[in-house]
Structure formats: structure tokens, C-alpha cells
Amino acid sequence: MQLSDFNFDLPDELIARYPLESRSASRLLHLKANGEYEDLHFTDILDQLNAGDLLVLNDTKVMKARLKGKRATGGAIEILVERIFDQTIAHCHIKSSNSPKAGAELFIGPDEVKVTVTGRHENLFIVEFTQPILQVLDQYGQLPIPPYFNREAEEIDTVRYQTVFNDPTKIASVAAPTASLHFDEALLKKLDDKGIKKTFVTLHVGAGTFLPVRTTDIENHVMHSEWCDVSEATAQLIRDTKARGNKVIAVGTTATRAIESAAQACGGHIGAWTGDTQIFIYPGYEFCAVDRLITNFHLPESTLLMLVSALSNRDNILNAYKHAVESKYRFFSYGDAMLIDKITA
């Protein structure tokens, strides 16, 4: 299967660079299992789900992971904290005029917090901070909004690029689980009142989510690694939902990857699992746990577009995307949403 099989034309003006005034005001394109689709509003999700269905959401929180600073020589640098290992050690991306070597000292903010490069791990730098990393990020960091926004992070992103249900103790992502950004407290309460259950997984989203696929044959692509956790309580809820004939609805590709990783690790049956996942879901993949998916519209030739094409199929997805473009849906992180039903044999 070729990378070009997942290309489509997207006018730049359809990229949503700012959120709507209300989280739940987005549109919703429902793609049915038979390939038909219908135009809805996101609040119509309430009518699309049944009592006893289970929403699976990602409760990670986005770090203010982007830091600007300078080298000892005065040259500008930018650090993107990808993964924190203890209070002062992290793996990071570093942008500078010259790639820093081990031993290089970098300085953040007017107080010149020192950061020392101690080595490399694959394409990342291993760095040591002289102060607790989360404290430095809170004081000097910016939210790492997606590159296709083509702007600096603003005050509105502080609130709107986080979910309303994020767990402050799980602040470790460099990108938001954006399908969840559509849910506000009022909609969550209505879903709860209808008897639609919810549970949480954790997948800390890495910057690799924005990396392009660089192989012509997609089967040669190697996914980036992300840490995730699926508890036994969540696994049991998923098993119980399926046993009574209800649907498991993953909210976002990150929730999908988390529970499908847990299922793969447990021999094809959903169970508790914690670890690093490099699961790559593309057409031909057999889903173990997910029945339906709420997701945003994804970039051309991206692994996320391949994932949604595995749940439906490539032709259905590209036909729906063509309709979305013609109907001027808003794309990407602050854009509109889809509800995709899994094709069943």
C-alpha cells in the first residue's frame, strides 16, 4: 500500500487555526459502515449513542513543553521537551543553528536556568536541567501548538488546547488528544444522564504525531514510541460493554491506539497494560476493542488518516473527506469532527 494512496487536496483556508467560541459548536460528519455519510452538529452525538455504550477518553494533559533560550555563545535555541524521566532529566528536540554536542550548556529565561546536553537517544537529545523540569516549563514554557497553526501560542490556547477532563497529575503530552476538545461539561453531563458510560486511558502524545511518513510503501514506516496505560478497571468496562452488546467508542486516535495496544499485548483480548507502544494501525488491521471512533479530520498522507481508513476503508474515508472539503468543514486540531462506524464482515 503506497503513501500516495492517502493523499487528498486540502485548501489552506479550511485549516482551523483557532477554536470556535464554544467547544461543542463544531460540526460532525457521521460516516456509516456502509459508506454513506450525514452532516450533523457535534451535540448530535447524544442521539448517535445508546444507553450502555462506553466512551473511552484520553486523560493526559499537555505540557508547556516549548522553551526558548540561548547557547553559552549567545545563539538562539529552542527546546521541545518530549519525555520527562525524572525531575531533571528529559529527552528533547533542540533547534539551533548547529546541533549541540554532549557537554553543551544552554540557558532558559532571564534567570538563565542552565540545561546541559548529556548525550543522544536516537533522534532526541538527553538533557539535564538544574531545576525541576515541570517548574521550568510552568515558568518559561509555551504550549506546543501544532506547526500547521503557523502562529505562536496565545492565551486562548492555555484553556482550549486542553480537555476539560485532563488529569493534572498526568501532565506529559506535547499535543492534545484533539477529538476530546469538543466535549464540554454540559455535553458530558447529558451523555451521563442518558446512561452513556465513560472511562479513561492515558497516552502521552509525542511530537512524532506530527512527523510525516517518509517511506513510499507505508508498511516500511516505523511508528514513534508513546507511553500509555490501560487500567484493569477500564479493561473490565470494555469487556462488560461488549458482553451486553453495546458499543465501545474511542474518542480520538490516541485512545484507539491505547486500547488496541493493550488488546494486542494481551493476545487479542482487552486487558490491563502499561508500556511504550509503537502500534501502527493501517488498512488490513483487525480491531480488537474499538467499534466506533470520534475523531477530527487528519493531514494528508498521515498515519492518523491511515488509522481511520483501517476502521472504515480508504475509499469511504477519502469520499467523506472530499465531501468535507466541498462542504467547508474545518480541519485538524481545532476543526470539526467525524463519527466513524467500523465496517463489520
From TrEMBL:
Specify the signal sequence span: none
Catalytic activities: 7-aminomethyl-7-carbaguanosine(34) in tRNA + S-adenosyl-L-methionine = epoxyqueuosine(34) in tRNA + adenine + L-methionine + 2 H(+)
Q: Does the keyword Ligase apply?
A: no
Places the protein is found: Cytoplasm
Q: Which domain of life is it from?
A: Bacteria
User: Is the keyword Cytoplasm assigned to this protein?
Assistant: yes
Instruction: Give the UniProt keywords, A-Z.
Output: Cytoplasm, Glycosyltransferase, Isomerase, Queuosine biosynthesis, S-adenosyl-L-methionine, Transferase
**Involved pathway(s):** tRNA modification; tRNA-queuosine biosynthesis
Instruction: Give the Gene Ontology MF terms in alphabetical order.
Output: S-adenosylmethionine:tRNA ribosyltransferase-isomerase activity
Q: Which GO terms describe its cellular component?
A: cytoplasm
Q: Which GO terms describe its biological process?
A: tRNA queuosine(34) biosynthetic process
Checking InterPro entries in the record gives: QueA, QueA_dom1, QueA_dom2, QueA_sf
Per the UniProt entry, the Enzyme Commission number(s) are 2.4.99.17
Sorted alphabetically, which Pfam families does this protein's record hold? Queuosine_synth (PF02547)
Family statement: Belongs to the QueA family.
Tell me, how does this one assemble?
Monomer.
Record-linked PANTHER family: S-ADENOSYLMETHIONINE:TRNA RIBOSYLTRANSFERASE-ISOMERASE (PTHR30307:SF0)
Tell me the function of this protein. Transfers and isomerizes the ribose moiety from AdoMet to the 7-aminomethyl group of 7-deazaguanine (preQ1-tRNA) to give epoxyqueuosine (oQ-tRNA).
* Protein name, UniProt field: S-adenosylmethionine:tRNA ribosyltransferase-isomerase
Organism annotation = Acinetobacter shaoyimingii
Instruction: Tell me the name of the encoding gene.
Output: queA
